[in-house]
Amino acid sequence: MDIRAQLSMNFHMDKCIGCHTCSVSCKNVWTTRRGAEYMWWNNVETKPGCGYPLTWEDQERYRGGWEVSGGSLRLKLLKGPGKIRTLANIFFQPNLPTIDDYYEPFTFDYQNLFNAPAGDDQPVARPKSLITGEFMEKIVLGPNWDDDMGGSPLYASNDPNLKGLSESQKELLTKFHKLFFFYLPRICNHCLNPACVASCPSGAIYKRGEDGIVLIDQDTCRAWRFCVSACPYKKPYYNWANGKSEKCIFCYPRTETGQANACAHACTGRIRSVGVLFYDADRIEEIAKTPDERLVEAMREILLDPCDPKVVEEAKRVGIDENWIKAAQNSPSYNLFKKWRIALPNHPEFRTLPMNFYIPPMSPILHNAKADAGGTFDPENMDFFHQIDKMRVPVRFLANLFGAGNEQVVIESLKRQMAARLYRRQQRFGDVAGGNSAVSQMLNSVGLTPNDCDEIYRLVSLATFQERFVIPETHREAQSTVDPRLMYEKRGTVGFGNKKKELIGRQW
Amino acid sequence: MINTMLFGAAPYVLLTLAIAGIIYRYTMSKYTWSSQSSQFLENRTLFFGSFPWHYGIMLILTGHIIGLIIPSVILGWNSAPARLYLLELTGLSLGFLALFGLLTLIYRRLTNVRVKALTSGWDVLVLLILLIQVVTGLGNAILYRWGSNWYAGAAVPWMWSVLSFQPNVDFVSNLPVVTKVHIFNAMLFFALIPFSRLAHFVVINPYKYLWRPYQVVRWYRPRTARTEHLVQYK
After folding, report:
1. What pTM does this model have?
2. Does B120 touch chain A (CB under 8 A)?
3. Å between A123 CA and nearest CA of chain B
4. Which residues of chain A lie closer than 8 angstroms to B41, CB-CB?
5. CATH superfamily of the domain spanning B2-210
6. Which residues of A, range 175-194, sit inside 8 Å of B by Cβ?
7. What's the gap between Cα A383 and its chain centre?
8. Rounded alpha-carbon distances, angstroms, from residue B19 to A505, B8, B32, B202
9. Cβ contact (<8 Å) for A193 and B31?
10. Which of B122, B220, B223 to probe by mutation at the A interface, max A CB count within 10 Å?
11. Does residue A479 sit at the B interface (CB-CB below 8 Å)?
12. Quick check: A371 pLDDT over 60?
């Protein structure tokens, strides 16, 4: 057993209202620099939708993530000749998304509103490209272009997650009474088996041993951009102005001091929580090779129970600090993903073992009349879980998004969420059909205890800041690799060092 | 006199500048040690520029280096006319391949607005130096036949005389002007490496990728029990 700690974020999708406060606070803190304007380390997408960059989930195009080939785990990017392919393509990277797959960053010519000469027409602020500085004819794409299913015949209908849906289910895109969408907030998953790290020819990307955060060493990065293709979530970005790749850093300067990440801290819906997970690094390869239908279950297996005395003893032996062990024992991530089994990873089939977890959304029951009047749902003829199949969001769609196509894990999560809700309703109002006995029977059938339900209820509705963000401080004072005299060198430089010049000429 | 300056003294000035500059920039400013890629902004034309250019010029450069290190092999190979023709023809085609790529790259840099926004004066200078180098190289090959032979007979001994600190300008003083430009321009190229995007010409790390494990893990302090820094699987 090689026990390591990992920071992990959770998203309760029922509560996400798509306000983009997370994206904006992330942008304000990290990516307002030249070359980074187009980057959204945190972004919120409407699903169904094409996402950002367009169709990032389509790995036929970008070759992101891993595949099992001949019993061993291999980067999709290395298909064919293997690692030599990377070196052969080092002068031109065939699977790279370009700026047009994201959007051309722009501003508006606001000065014209003040300086325009008097005339018959109202002056306008024309869009201006932040790359070339020239006026743009029109803006054709933005970071959130298909928000709330805008342009859905063009965008949402190309969502890769719609595969396997029946024609009548696909009516959700076009028929108003069947319409649904929900929001998918995304940051870097800080995977256990990161494809970006594995693809980097210069070895610039690394996973931090202490907290599992994946970072790009800016001094070692040589602008070869394989990480951009290899990451199936498209979360490393290429800074076109300074020629370095950058990515979500899980706000490590904040988490190291026990503060919540900028995105999570700002979340108005309080949908996010952050916790510590312990995992067994010896099993990464084995787990990442698990067939699709068992993948989510296998990801639960690689996580270790932080309350198990043997795990605690081993954690202490390998030098994990006391406060980290304590945090792991109160981890919202562990509870949501493994103990209560209601959170799921995003696209586990990419086999990077992503470490952010999503509680899939419940949705309105689909009906416009009783069954005998041509509707699809008969409210007089239902049991507790009958509704799951009738939800507007097809389980198939959620399974493609969160279960590697395995509907069972999604149904389990939805049933457990529903059971917890009904249990609470019975506690509060006592009006659930069948009364207490029916509710306890229902809890038994999904494997939850009343205590679990109370804890779930507390975490997703009442939890305080400290209960949602259980982030232990990193003991930087014990680290040996940084000269303490240099610790403040990068202060005021958003972690990227002072501005540097190529010996003559270009500003970096 | 001018020959002595250009081929007896200047090589030392320019090569010293190159070596000292490379060491200085790599140690003091490692962050800037790369060639800024513009593929992210424009990738259609780049394909037809970057691939032919890099593969053409790399193979030709390899030929030059082989000739420098073991000239007798080249001379031996060229002793049969058929093999000489083959070598010359291969070199010439690769030269034209590189020229095609280079012209495409120049065209792209001058016409694409996005790429132009990223272009510095150094980039233009680098392209100019490279263009002179490729054109004079092709000129040598076409105007003065069997260059692979007299390269090994005239230029290589001169290079060795420079490298062994006994510069003998006589080897090159009677060469045609096109050849002299080619040789001097090559030294300018080396001198430019530390100052421009040519820094990427001296690459140190990508070969390691072939045998390193996929995953890289860094620890901020030594682990109490384990010293292993990598997840060991390929």
Report:
1. 0.90
2. yes
3. 27
4. 98-99, 131, 240
5. Transmembrane di-heme cytochromes, Chain C (1.20.950.20)
6. 193-194
7. 34
8. 20, 18, 17, 11
9. no
10. B220
11. yes
12. no
Average pLDDT over residues A331-357: 96
pLDDT digits (tens, 9 = 90+) for A109-160: 999 999 999 999 999 999 999 999 999 999 999 999 999 888 877 888 888 8
User: From residue A142, how far is each of A138, A229, A329, B105 by CA, in Å?
Assistant: 11, 20, 41, 29
Cβ of residue A24 closer than 8 Å to a chain B Cβ? no
Please name every residue paired with A208 in a beta bridge, in sequence order, or none if there are none. B218
CB-based contact A203 B212, cutoff 8 Å: yes
Please judge whether B120 and A73 are an interchain contact, meaning their C-beta atoms are less than 8 angstroms apart.
no
Q: Nearest CB to B224: which of A202, A318, A506?
A: A318
Tally of CA atoms within 13 A in the half-sphere of B202 that contains its CB: 19
Q: What is the 3-state secondary structure (H, E, C) of A198-223?
A: HHCCCCCEEEECCCCCEEECCCCCCC
Is A243–B225 a contact, with Cβ atoms under 8 angstroms apart? Answer: no
User: Which residue matches tokens 């680290």?
Assistant: A479
Task: Tell me which DSSP letter residue A116 carries.
Answer: P
Structure-token pair, residue A332: 């919202």
* B200 touches A: beta carbon within 8 Å: yes
Q: How far is A209 from chain B (nearest CA, A)?
A: 5
Higher pLDDT, B114 or A493: B114
Name residues whose C-beta falls within 8 Å of residue B50's C-beta, 6 or more positions apart in sequence.
A91, A92, B39, B101, B105
| pLDDT at residue A373, rounded to an integer | 55
User: Could you tell me if B28 lies within 8 Å of chain A, comparing CB atoms?
Assistant: no
Domain boundaries, chain B: 2-210
8 Å CB contact between A469 and A276: no
pLDDT tens, residue by residue, A36-54: 999 999 999 999 999 999 9
Contact (CB, 8 A) for B155 and B171:
yes
Residues found in chain B: 234
